[in-house]
C-alpha cells in the first residue's frame, strides 16, 4: 500500500524534437533514434525530458544534448560544370589563370578539399591542390594550339575519401589563348585609278584591298578616307573597300584627286596603314567659256575724268579651237552707261566722272558673246569733299552743381558723308572752359573735369569743333551753353556773429529795435532766408520779421524789471536763427544783446516814511544825529538822489548832507527850550 501511494516514475520528451527523430522509454528513460539523422542539417539536438511520479501533477525536467557525429557522406561539388577563360599568349609563367572552387557539406577532414587536373593534354598548366588556383607553368607564345581543355577533380579528405567523378561532377575549364594585335594591315591594291569625268553618281572607281595576318578582330580591316575628299566627291565602303563617285565630276575643275586612305584593324590598340590613292579624271568635251571670277570687285576714285581705267576682266574656255575665241560686252543695267568695255581685251573704263555721295556702288554684268556672264562689283573710292556737320548749331543743357567729376553731360554727334578715314570725326573744344569740361575726341562725349560750383560760376559758354582729316575743308562748330543748377550747399551767414542794440523802456509794442542781415550764396528757395528767435525770448517779449530780419518789441518794456533770464539788469540776450528754404534746410545763428534804456519814471522812496530820533540835550555840536536814505528804481542820473530839509529847521539847529542824507547837529540843544524838532526832508 505504501508503494502504491508513491506511484511509478514515468519519462517523456517535452520539447526539442519537433520532427520526431527520437523516442524515450517511459519506464526506463532510454532514448533511441526513430528517424535517420543528418549532421549537415542539424549537428546538435537539445531534448527536454520530464519525469512524473505516479499521477501527481508535479514533475521535474532535465536537458539532454545529442551531438550528431559527421559521416563522410557528401562528395565535393563544383558550383559550375564548365568555365571558359581567355588569356593573352604573352602571359609569363606563374600567372594565375583560373581559381577552381568546390564545396563539401561535410565537416572536419570530411569537408577539406584537394584539387587536381585529371586531363593531361598539356604540361602548360598546374593547379594548387589546396587553393584550386590554376597557373601557367610556361609561356604558350610558340604553341600552335589556341585552346586547352582541362578537367579538374575535387576530392575530400574523409575516410574513405569521396571524389567528384570525372564525367559527372568534375569541372571542365576551357582556356583560350588570345591573339595579340601585332601586325598592321598592308595594302595589296594599286595606288592609281582612272575615271571619266561624265561618270554617273555611284560609279565604281576603285576597289581598295588591305590584308592583316592577325586573327579575329585583330585581323578585321575597315577602310577610311583621311584627306583629299574635302568636297565629298567620293564615298568609300568601309567594310568592302569599294570606292564610288558621290557626285558628278568635272575635269576642268579638278583633274586629279589624291586621297589618303587608311586601313584600320579592330584590335586594341588598333593598328593602321595608309596609302595615297591617285585618281585621274579623264576629259570629255563639255565646256563653255567662263569668267575667271564670277564676281569682280574693284574701286575707282570719284571725280576723275572720263576714260579712267576701272578693271580688266578675263574669261577662259577650256575647250580648244574657235570655241575658245572670246568677245566681251556690258549687259544693260543700272549705271551701265557710265562705263565702256573693250570687246577684245575685257578692259572697263569710265565714260563720265563718278560721285561717291550720289552712288557709291555699281553692279555691272559683263558677258563673253552668247555664253556665260560675270558680275562686276565696283566701289567708288571716297575723296574728302565733305566736312563734318553737327546736328545742332547750339546746345543748352542744365546740370546740377553736385555732379561728380568725370560725369558725362552730353554726347555730341557730327556726321560726315565721306567714307573711311575721310569720314572719321574728331572732337575738340576751342574756348576756355575754366578747367571744368573736356571732350572725348573720338566719341564726342563731354565730361566734367572738376567739381562744379554754381556760386563761383553759374554758366559756361564754349565752342565745340568737329574735324575730319582734311586740311583744307572748314570745320563744323557748335556753341555749348551749360547752366549750373543750384544745390543747397551753402548755409545762411549773418553779417555779424553778435549784435548789440538798445531800446527805451516804455515804448509801445511793435517798436523796431534792430535789423539783422544774413546772406546765402545759393539761389532760388535754397537762397531764401527766414529769420526766427531760437532762444532767450522769455514771455515772447520780442518778435522778428521772418523775411526782413527786423527785431521789434512785442510788449512794453520796463527797465526796472529784473527778470532772471537777462545777462545784466535791463538787458536781453537773444539767439537768432537764419534758415534757408532748401531741402534739407541749412541754418546758422547769431546773438543779439538788447539793452533797455532807462526813463525817469520812478520817484525816490525813503526806506522809512518817518524817522524817530532821540538825542541828549548835552550832545555836542557837530555830532551825527541821524541818517536818512531813499532809493530810486531808475538808473544812471535818473537814480542820483539829492536830499534837502524842507521845513522844521528854521533856527538852523541841524545840517543835512544833500548827497549822503547825513543829519548833523549845528547848535546846542536845550531840552527846556525845545522838546521836539520835526524836520521834513525831501529826496529828489
Structural account:
- By secondary structure, the chain is mainly beta.
- The protein folds into 7 domains: 59 residues, Immunoglobulin-like, CATH 2.60.40; 92 residues, Immunoglobulin-like (Sandwich); 97 residues, Immunoglobulin-like (Sandwich), CATH 2.60.40.60; 92 residues, Cadherins (Immunoglobulin-like); 82 residues, Immunoglobulin-like (Sandwich); 105 residues, Sandwich (Immunoglobulin-like), CATH 2.60.40; 84 residues, Sandwich (Immunoglobulin-like), CATH 2.60.40.60.
- 1% of the residues lie in helices and 42% in strands.
- The protein has 1 helix and 57 strands.
- Strands 7-14-13-10 form a 4-stranded mixed beta sheet, with no helix packed on it. A 4-stranded mixed beta sheet has the order 16-23-22-19, with no helix packed on it. A 4-stranded mixed beta sheet has the order 25-32-31-28, with no helix packed on it.
- A hairpin with a 5-residue loop joins β47 and β48.
- It is flat and about 190 Å long.
- The protein starts with a helix and ends with a strand.
- This is PCD23 protein.
- It is found in: Membrane.
- Pfam families: Cadherin (PF00028).
Amino acid at each position: 500500500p505504501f508503494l502504491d501511494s508513491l506511484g511509478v516514475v514515468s519519462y517523456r520528451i517535452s520539447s526539442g524534437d519537433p520532427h520526431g527523430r527520437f523516442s524515450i522509454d517511459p519506464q526506463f528513460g532510454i532514448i533511441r533514434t526513430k528517424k535517420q539523422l543528418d549532421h549537415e542539417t542539424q549537428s546538435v539536438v537539445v531534448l527536454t525530458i520530464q519525469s512524473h511520479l505516479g499521477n501527481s501533477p508535479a514533475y521535474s525536467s532535465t536537458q539532454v544534448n545529442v551531438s550528431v557525429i559527421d559521416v563522410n557522406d557528401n562528395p565535393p561539388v563544383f558550383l559550375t560544370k564548365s568555365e571558359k577563360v581567355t588569356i593573352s599568349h604573352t602571359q609569363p609563367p606563374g600567372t594565375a589563370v583560373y581559381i577552381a572552387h568546390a564545396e563539401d557539406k561535410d565537416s572536419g577532414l570530411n569537408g577539406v578539399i584537394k584539387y587536381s587536373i585529371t586531363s593531361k593534354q598539356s604540361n602548360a598548366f598546374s593547379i594548387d591542390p589546396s587553393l584550386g588556383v590554376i597557373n601557367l607553368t610556361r609561356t604558350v607564345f610558340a604553341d600552335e594550339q589556341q585552346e586547352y581543355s582541362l578537367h579538374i577533380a575535387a576530392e575530400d579528405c574523409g575516410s574513405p575519401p569521396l571524389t567528384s567523378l570525372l564525367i559527372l561532377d568534375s569541372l571542365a575549364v576551357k582556356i583560350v589563348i588570345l591573339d595579340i594585335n601585332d601586325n598592321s594591315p598592308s595594302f595589296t591594291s594599286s595606288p592609281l585609278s582612272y575615271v571619266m569625268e561624265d561618270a554617273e553618281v555611284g560609279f565604281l572607281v576603285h576597289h581598295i584591298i588591305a590584308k592583316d595576318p592577325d586573327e579575329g578582330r585583330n585581323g578585321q580591316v575597315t577602310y577610311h578616307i583621311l584627306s583629299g575628299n574635302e568636297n565629298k566627291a567620293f564615298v568609300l565602303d568601309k567594310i568592302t573597300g569599294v570606292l564610288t563617285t558621290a557626285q558628278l565630276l568635272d575635269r576642268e575643275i579638278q583633274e586629279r584627286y589624291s586621297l589618303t586612305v587608311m586601313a584600320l584593324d579592330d584590335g586594341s590598340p588598333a593598328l593602321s596603314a595608309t596609302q595615297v590613292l591617285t585618281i585621274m579624271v579623264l576629259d570629255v568635251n563639255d565646256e563653255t567659256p567662263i569668267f575667271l571670277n564670277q564676281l569682280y570687285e574693284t574701286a575707282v576714285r570719284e571725280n576723275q575724268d572720263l576714260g579712267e581705267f576701272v578693271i580688266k576682266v578675263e574669261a577662259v574656255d577650256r575647250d580648244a579651237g574657235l570655241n575658245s575665241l572670246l568677245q566681251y560686252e556690258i549687259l544693260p543695267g543700272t549705271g551701265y552707261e557710265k562705263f565702256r568695255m573693250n570687246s577684245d581685251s575685257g578692259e572697263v573704263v569710265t565714260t563720265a566722272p563718278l560721285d561717291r555721295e550720289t552712288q557709291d556702288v555699281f553692279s555691272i554684268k559683263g558677258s563673253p558673246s552668247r555664253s556665260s556672264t560675270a558680275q562686276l562689283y565696283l566701289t567708288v573710292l571716297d575723296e574728302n569733299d565733305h566736312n563734318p556737320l553737327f546736328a545742332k548749331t547750339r546746345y543748352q543743357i542744365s546740370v546740377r552743381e553736385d555732379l561728380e567729376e568725370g560725369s558725362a553731360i552730353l554726347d555730341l554727334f557730327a556726321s560726315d558723308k565721306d567714307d573711311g578715314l575721310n569720314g572719321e570725326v574728331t572732337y575738340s573744344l576751342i574756348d576756355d572752359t575754366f578747367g571744368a569740361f573736356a571732350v572725348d575726341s573720338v566719341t564726342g562725349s563731354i565730361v566734367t573735369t572738376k567739381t562744379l560750383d554754381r556760386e563761383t560760376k553759374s554758366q559756361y559758354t564754349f565752342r565745340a569743333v568737329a574735324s575730319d582729316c582734311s586740311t583744307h575743308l572748314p570745320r563744323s562748330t557748335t556753341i555749348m551753353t551749360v547752366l549750373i543748377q543750384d544745390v543747397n550747399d551753402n548755409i545762411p551767414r549773418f553779417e555779424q556773429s553778435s549784435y548789440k542794440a538798445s531800446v527805451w523802456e516804455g515804448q509801445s509794442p511793435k517798436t523796431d529795435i534792430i535789423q539783422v542781415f544774413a546772406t546765402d550764396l545759393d539761389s532760388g528757395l535754397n537762397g531764401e532766408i527766414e529769420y526766427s528767435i531760437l532762444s532767450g525770448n522769455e514771455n515772447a517779449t520780442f518778435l522778428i520779421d521772418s523775411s526782413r530780419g527786423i527785431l521789434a518789441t512785442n510788449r512794453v518794456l520796463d527797465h526796472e524789471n529784473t527778470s532772471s533770464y537777462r545777462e545784466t539788469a535791463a538787458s536781453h540776450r537773444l539767439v537768432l536763427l537764419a534758415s534757408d528754404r532748401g531741402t534739407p534746410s541749412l541754418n546758422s545763428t547769431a546773438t543779439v544783446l538788447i539793452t533797455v534804456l532807462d526813463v525817469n519814471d520812478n520817484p525816490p522812496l525813503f526806506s522809512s516814511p518817518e524817522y524817530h530820533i532821540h538825542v541828549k540835550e548835552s550832545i555836542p555840536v557837530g555830532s551825527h544825529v541821524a541818517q536818512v536814505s531813499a532809493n530810486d528804481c531808475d538808473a544812471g542820473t535818473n537814480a542820483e538822489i539829492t536830499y534837502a530839509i524842507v521845513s522844521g529847521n528854521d533856527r538852523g539847529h541841524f545840517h543835512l548832507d544833500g548827497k549822503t542824507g547825513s543829519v548833523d547837529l549845528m547848535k546846542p540843544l536845550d531840552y527846556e527850550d525845545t522838546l521836539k524838532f520835526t524836520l521834513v526832508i525831501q529826496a529828489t
